Amino acid sequence: MPVFCAQFTLSRIASCSQAVLIVYCIQYTISTAWRCDVPLPEPVAVSRVYLRDEAYARVRDWILDGTLAPGEPLRDETLALALGMSRTPVREALQRLEDDGLVVTTAKRRTSVSPVSLQQAREIFPMVAALEDFALKCAEPRLDDAALRAMDEANVRLAEALEAKDAGAAMAADIAFHAVIIERSSNSELINVLGDLKFKVRRIDRAFFGGADRSASVVDHQELIAAIRRGDRSGARRVLRRNWGRALSWINPEP
């Protein structure tokens, strides 16, 4: 065999041997990685989760603030365009909103904002009153000066909003007032349940806010703060129940 042919053959063999060795090393590395005791994380579609949550929060807010009125049709393609995202996270958000009772879907797969009725108010307001009464009982040891100051500030905002006939600001101030009691209950399950119910209360309040004089609520709040300050637990709970009774009467007045 000529010398140059022998050299060429040997170089090819060497190259092939190196290639085989490299392939073997790669295969060995992969096989040992799969045998590793540390579990490899599954890929997570983080952006999709964030988009779904964002779609849920924004559409929910549009429903609660009246931008999307009761009975208004909800088309996922229209909402996706308004939100600047694909239809998939919007559909997932609508399903979650349906679970919350804020959206309904007919047998023909037509989705719309759920209606608001006086019957809902009659059912929900007494429930919230009873649960908030329990929240007040739980919160009493933690309703310190800072908490009472926050309640007083919210009540001042409520009075100003009612004077200005600003329904949105009035509802926000009233929610802030009662939220102090709920948060100070330090009962996470109670906080979650009341949080879900308060979404429905906001919708009912907005739908039936009307022209009723709600200034008595400001007085109720003042009396509630005073009762808590002097340690009158039964008096505070009595005022709270009266306040919720007034709220229902403004929406559903007795004939």
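The record above closes out task 2.4. Task 2.5 opens with a second protein, given below.
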Amino acid sequence: MTPPSARDPIRIMLVDDHVERSASVEEKLRDSGFEVISRLPSATGLLFQIEQHQPDLVLIDIQSPGRDVLESLSVVNHHNPRPVVMFSHEEDPAFIEQAVDAGVTAYLMDELNPDRVKPVIDLAIAQFKSYQSLRKALDDARTKLASQSVIEEAKQLLMAQRGISEDKAHKTLRTLSMDTNQSLPEAARSVINILGKPSNNAR
């Protein structure tokens, strides 16, 4: 999800099977500065609706959110995550865990109260941003660790096959990186692909 600018209102998709309440919730949301871009009476075709409208946040309060709802949210969370607030009377811990795994940012075992919806949304957005920051930091750390592992393997190959020191092997990789306009990990992979191949004379 591309976050809206400070001047743009948060675009919300409201999914509520209680028609009268959803109208009241929509009014409160608009009064609070949010933009309700779609109000759905059920979660039927939820994945299509999200892809069609591209909301910044999805607000759900339906009587019995089923597996298809969680599957749709899981697909969205995998490809283009965004905050999801779900109100439900479902108290089963297994279902709640599945909902969180599917990308539900805030799960509340209560009815959607029009007068309390804004702070819930504000908190969900803050939690979502915090989680995404942690997720990015973890992904960056994993990428860095993988790159370091590749570089180390390439250095070991250069040291073993050319009889050079670790410092010389590292300088060789840096030179190759600059000469071929590759990143250091890419240059290291090239070395591994070449030096790591078995000799044609090997049996």
